[in-house]
Amino acid sequence: MSSRLFIPYSALISPDAKELIINQPARCSHCNTEPAVFFETHQVTLKANRIPHRQIGRKYRNEKRLLVRLPLCEACYLNDYLLTPDCYAHDNTPMGTQARRNGRLADVAGLLAALSIILITPFVPAIGLLSTLKTNWYFLLIVGLVMLGIIWVLQKMSQRQVRKSLAALRPGGSKFPRAQVWTNPIEGDFEPANTILEINLENVNWADDCSHLNAWRIELNR
Known about the structure:
Elements: E1 2-8, E2 19-21, E3 38-50, E4 60-72, H1 74-83, H2 94-119, H3 128-135, H4 137-169, E5 180-183, E6 195-201, H5 204-214, E7 217-221
Parallel strand pairs: 2-4
Antiparallel strand pairs: 1-6, 1-7, 3-4, 5-6
């Protein structure tokens, strides 16, 4: 059984808020452990004021990105990193730094691989410097593949260290699922009562307390 929280637009401290930190109740949203000083982060895009008949491109006049943060204990924070390391890119923690570094390396590796493929197409003329690049296109591909290998090694080393820390905190390495967070596009302008977010949580007790403390609507999923 799980629960679903409905978050109104009024939950944002200000219309220009970049993040929504849900820290009531002040315990882990996965396992109810205290303290819960870490966060599970979700990036969503709020959309409002739909543009009529728009099929291509931007479909809403008002769009803004929002980081939704739910409290986690250290053990659940470490465990989530083993399952979804890419989701840590917005965290101001050592793991967040690693996620951002790996993401940048992956972007560069992908760019080099794509460039190498473009160079062997007839769309790139074999003149001047381009001729040399076309002849040696495979070097770019090799560099991209090497960078991907480095990312894989760094990720494995990081995960090994995290597993050691997790085993000391919670023997057995119990796994708790991340919440599911999604947005509800608004046809008109944002209003305080508009439900802008829905959060699906496996921890029914935490969700129920959160609903009462924040006066948010909740539904149980059986």
